[in-house]
Amino acid sequence: MKKSRGRTGRKRQRKHLQSCMAGVNCSHKLEYIKLKKWLKDRGFQDLNLRPAEFLDTGRGLMTTRALQVSRDLIISLPEKCLLTTATVLSSCLGEYILKWKPPVSPLVALCTFLIAEKHAGEDSLWKPYLDVLPKTYTCCVCLEQDVVSLLPEPLRKKAQEQKAMVQELYMSSKAFFSSLQPLFAENTGNIFNYSALEWAWCTVNTRTIYMKQSQRECFSLEPDVYALAPYLDLLNHSPNVQVKAAFNEQTRSYEIQTNSQCKKYEEVFICYGPHDNQRLLLEYGFVAMDNPHSSVYVSSDILLKYFPPLDKQRNAKLSILKDHDFLENLTFGWDGPSWRLLIALRVLCLGADDFTCWRRTLLGDVISASNEQQAWNITAKICQFLIEETQHGLLQISQLKRSKENLRKQLALVEALCLEELKILQKSAEIL
């Protein structure tokens, strides 16, 4: 009796695990039915992909057949389905873009189109696509200041730069937006406001595929490389898969082939690139668990915290590190301190007698046992400092989650990032 109950329990557990991995099919939802019909009218043939909700990743695409490693074609999206600057120029916005001086950027053109089409509502030809786009985003530009202040360095600085850049984009585009007034009954200031631009910018930044367009005189000199790809952009990122993605000139379609296996009814992933979690949160608004590319950054301020300010060669050492680009991208990873971090610390630990050997140190040579020992000791101290700082940050997040209900979603993302960084630092501490 016990045996058979155990087998049943295991079977139930297996089924539960499979259902978690499989996700819940969402093909029956009206917005997806309308999107599929809209795409079919533009020549899209569905290759066994279904929209679904997954436990870990939220909305994504599942496959109804097993995908093999032999360059299986995941999706082929015809050119007619893609939203590019050519789409924008062929719309009513085209004549306004053509005569505007100085020329707008391809990015502003796409953002303007998205805002205008969203405002058009039922009258928009792109409504089936717009209806499945996220209403809000969680990339750093959208985070509240209370949340940004809890981000680890250098992400906090990059988040502030990103916010400033989007605000500058809005301010510099206001005159162009005003020129579009003849197209609208309502005041353009109400339609093309900051929150509308932020939403459109996030849509382009998080969802476009790279597709180089020929340079047009009506646009500024920034590269025209953006294409929005309805349905295809439901595919989520995994750092552990390999795909080949490109526009096929023969079929006039954007195609994605997989080099990774995927079982029937499992989520199909693509890879956005070998990005660490700070980059993923900054640009895409999510964090990947157990990301092999993740690392914890050591700022130059932290680096200098452990060196005597009275070191006579201190300024010379800093100049050497700066000139040879050894003050940026100093990290701890899953395999411990990076080579760059150790080189920087060895240079800073050079004694007066060893200082002339700095060139050899930059090449990775071990100058002396004492220099090596000192560098490793300071590495361990920095690692411990970052562990304590991350733990303190997690405590602050926990407290804020209780007091600010409206920020829970944003705080959960920063918490996930900090927990991942804590794991990396603890692994590094073990190695050290």
Automatic annotation (TrEMBL):
Q: Return the EC number.
A: 2.1.1.364
Gene Ontology MF terms: histone H3K4 monomethyltransferase activity
**Would the keyword tRNA processing be found if you checked this record's keyword annotation?**
no
Q: Which CDD domains does the annotation name?
A: SET_SETD4 (cd19177)
> What biological process terms from GO does the record include?
inflammatory response; methylation
- Protein family per UniProt: Belongs to the class V-like SAM-binding methyltransferase superfamily. SETD4 family.
Q: What is this protein called?
A: SET domain-containing protein 4
